[in-house]
Predict the 3D structure of the following.
Amino acid sequence: MRRIVTVTVIALAFPLLVHADAIRQTKGEIYDAFRQLDVDLPSPNMYRSASGAPGPLYWQQRADYDIEVVLDEGRRHIAASETVRYTNNSPDSLRYLWIQLDQNRFRTDSLENRTRTATDPLTILDRKNRDVITFDELAYEQATRETPYGFEIGEVTDARGRVMPHAIADTMMRIDLSEPLGPGERTSFSIDWSFYIIDNPRVGGRSGYEHFPETDSYIYFLAQWFPRLAAYTDYTGWQHKAFLGRGEFTLEFGDYKVAITVPSDHVVSASGALQNASDVLNAEQRRRLTNARRADKPVYIVTPEEAAENETAGTNSTRTWVFEAKNVRDFAWASSRKFIWDAMVHRQDDSRVPEVLAMSFYPNEAQPIWSMYSTQAVVHTMEVYSRFSFAYPYPTAQSVNTWKSGGMEYPMITFNGYRPEPFLQDDDNPVEVAPDSTYSSKIKYGLIGVIIHEIGHIYFPMTVNSDERQWTWMDEGINSFLEYLAEVEWEDGFAAYTPDPNVLDYIVPYMLSENQVPIMTNSESIPQFFDNAYSKPTAAMIVLRETVMGRELFDFAFKEYSTRWKFRRPTPADFFRTMEDASGMDLDWFWRGWFYSTDHVEVGISDVREYRVSSKNPDTEFPLQREENAKLYPESLTQQRNREEGITPRVERVPGLEDFYNEHDRFTPSNQDRNEYTEMIDGLEELERETLRRAIEENRVVYFIDFVNSGGLPTPLPLSVTNADGSKDFVTIPAEIWRLNHRQVTRLLVRDKAISAIELDPRHETADTDFSNNHFPRRIAQSRIDLYKSAEKDRDLMRGMLEKLRESKGQAGGSGREVPLDPGQGEQ
Ligand SMILES: [Zn+2]
């Protein structure tokens, strides 16, 4: 189908270049890239200090939950009820409470569904600007149309059982209180609800179920599954911006007690610690679990063979698993009869939580890589992250395989993808390997990487509780930075970013790209989401740690931020201020450049000039000037060729024509020159005379090095200097060199040794976007080039007709009829 589109072109009656950037103060080319951030950051107050620490009157709300939920496997449906105790620690009286109903996002009339845009062809590598619709988009449309997804809210009652008025606004629900909840007061209320679990492979999203048709079994992974208190904060009041799919969750801490009723052959993984092992595990499983608490490598609680057996048996009875989670901001769970379960202990130097049980839950389809890597990656994450922040704060850390790729985080539990690709049987090409024994390196490193990332989120934002609905970078960016550190510590050359594992090389195309927004942009309005909110902050933090601040100052300041805001809710300003407060560095230019602007790093060496200090003594200097002059102005070609042809100048042929000037050129010192030199020396101050004397004695080399900055982002200048004697020095010029002129600077270097070459950023530590101007003198770029052959393959219809017809796995609606090849109807 083609659509005819008419476009009306209108003349714009207003200037196109209205720069809405009130931050930048411009006169001519120069602006103050080092201007302080004060006007851009919120004013410090009693809740948030100017140091970046929580203020003396810092407060946050609290919500404790008791939940009972029943999974109806036949209908892929849950029914549940909760009692919430809400504590108002704010100085305000609240007349109503806001509740998050995230499942409502999947209703056909949700704000997100009504404002979905078609896939941008550019994002799926189809560069021919034409309309595209993906299988995923169509499957989503079909699934949300055929099942009434979203919360079905039943009774909402107060502590005395009275019905509470409530109103639903998209993914939020307001509950009206019969009387205002004053500062320091607590209230409790109950909600009944139910909903259809989303078919995750079709609908997408962060939870749902996956169906395995071979055994007609399921994996359920439930998140955003209960009505959750919206956050009420000192900086924005209620955070009740609708859930549009990206800006994740802004939540309050509390204690949870959750009873989950599932078919009795299911294994349940959930936020928190299991309270009733004796009701749901058999004696052998309990014995294995006890062993796991002492195991320094993963041991099975449910073996792959037992999981395979569970999968085929089936049951009509149910069991209730009870979990408790203390001081968490959310609760998620997963349930399946397919789960293999392994566990080991992670010991840490922390009196409150000395031991953490690291666990993984996965189906046989995820083997063999899950039993090899999952729980080990969980433990590795805790080792690395705890060193940079704080001890892991909870008793369990779990990784559950819930989908083919990707991941999602909750307190103590993470949903992670990556499975070996199912082995495609091809009768014509039998391969002699077991179906599950191969996997690509992408799947291996994807799995380890996603587990590190999601377990890492239990630190940021599950413990350092940033406002995800507002700022994606505060959890994804900081977490991706630590993930990168943990990956590099997993193995050398870890394929964290492709094709180059160095994030500072990876980020270059994004930094140069058009239609970019600053990192400081609301989650829902970010084009190129991953690079903006994950990779660019990672790159920024690496530059900050390795090059701007150095590891010692950075690590101390970052740990200070983590511990100040552990179990609290930081804002961007709290991060920026703490990093400065604890390091003694003014980093406003860095936050402004990397977080508030779309500038990139593009610096080069444009010129280098070498000097020695002149003695001004004509007897020393004039001969040197003569040499220099000869180098600057070689003999003219005419004069040179005359000599080669044997033409002798007249003054040499005719005697008597030569005089004083033929013996002395303009570089011959005269007595007048000598007297002027003596007068000059006598006229110098004592200090000046001594400075000149010493300079002549030391004969050091003076360099003027010109740097240009066409990217706009101020950057340190790491320099590898090769000396004339072959030795090398490494010098890093701090970024403050750009504080008076962010476009070009000249650096004066006085050195003992002459320099033969300078290379800027040889270790790729600044995210510089173009290395061709980083050498002085310039280098010839060397590479290898392929010969290009252009030929298009002909479509051979006759050959195509003779091919054997293959059986399809399913009927997609098209005709599978075989067309016989008629000898009379060959290709024209
Ligand atoms: Zn993440």
User: Anything to note?
Assistant: Residues 1-22, 430-434, 814-828 have pLDDT under 50 and may be disordered. DSSP finds 22 helices and 32 strands in the chain. Residues 453, 457, 476, 479 surround zinc ion (CB under 6 Å).
